[in-house]
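User: quick one, fold this
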Amino acid sequence: MAQAKRPVSPHLQVYRWSVTMASSILHRATGVALGAGTLLLAWWLLAAATSDEAYALVQLCMGSVLGQVVMLGFVWALTYHLFNGLRHLVWDMGYGFELKTAQISGWVALVGSGAVTLVLAFVCGGAS
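Assistant:
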């Protein structure tokens, strides 16, 4: 049986990257990262409720360089998802669909989340 020739849909390699495309992908990725980070939060809460030894283990892991990088990534994912979620809320109200506005709001979400993450890391970093 002969195969019918069907058009092949272009993929990411074909399209020119834009901030709107990247923000869509990042929004999905940060949603997944927030799910994983929530598991770490649950681990921390369970350890705090269980014993001093369990809590000390979590503190040791999260206090390590790798743990700090993971926590910084979690905070960035949270702030980016928040900023981009607000962007989507504005879209749900019917505003911001113009190409230039969508590009600017994408950059605001990206740069704003990075700035807020750095401020939080600086302010909260001294507490540990």
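User: anything notable?
Assistant: The mean pLDDT is 91.
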